[in-house]
Structures are given as structure tokens and as C-alpha cells.
Design brief:
The protein is about 80% helix and about 0% strand. By secondary structure, the chain is mainly alpha-helical.
Length: about 100
């Protein structure tokens, strides 16, 4: 979420810098170059953000596969960390006991 906000702030700053440069670019006849540079900057940030989102989703998918399957939307995070073969009342209790013991050590 912070990266997304950072990219949005960067896009806004490109627009503000473009506004500041507009009068000089207009006098020099460089408006097309100004607009092209601004567009290239925004497109570059959009591509970086897209690659970040894709990588984040791949990582999340990998973590779910490592856990042994997809987690139900309202399932407990503790239950999601227990391998699927132990998802029974007794298996979960044993897994939680082991987890608590590791946390104490």
C-alpha cells in the first residue's frame, strides 16, 4: 500500500513539475517534448507499480501453495498455518500446543 501511495505522489509531482515548466516550454516551442516526457514518466511508474503488484501476487500465491492450499476468507490465521493433514480438532490442538511451546522457548 505504501508503494502504491508513493507512485501516486510521484505522478502528481510529474504533473506539478510539468505545470511549472509549461511557460518556458511554450516559449521555446518544446511543448511536445514536455508532454512526451511527462507521459513517459507516468507510464514508467505505472509499469513499475504493475510489476510490483504482479510480484506481490506471485509471492502470496507461493505462500499459499507452501501452506498446502488456499485459505478460506474468514479462516483463522493460526488454522491456515497448520498443514492440511492436521486440520481436525485433535490435530489442531496438538499443532497449537507445539507452536506455543516453540514460542515459549
Amino acid at each position: 500500500m505504501i508503494k502504491t501511495f508513493g507512485y501516486l505522489v510521484s505522478c502528481i509531482s510529474v504533473a506539478l513539475l510539468g505545470l511549472a515548466a509549461y511557460p518556458g516550454a511554450e516559449k521555446a516551442g518544446l511543448l511536445p517534448a514536455l508532454f512526451l516526457g511527462m507521459a513517459a514518466s507516468v507510464v514508467g511508474m505505472a509499469l513499475r507499480w504493475t510489476s510490483y503488484e504482479l510480484e506481490r501476487r506471485r509471492q502470496k500465491s507461493k505462500e499459499l501453495e507452501t501452506r498446502g492450499g488456499r485459505r478460506a476468507p474468514n479462516a483463522s490465521p493460526i488454522a491456515a498455518s497448520v498443514p492440511s493433514r492436521q486440520v481436525s480438532g485433535v490435530g489442531v490442538a496438538r499443532a497449537l500446543e507445539g507452536r506455543e511451546a516453540r514460542l515459549r522457548d
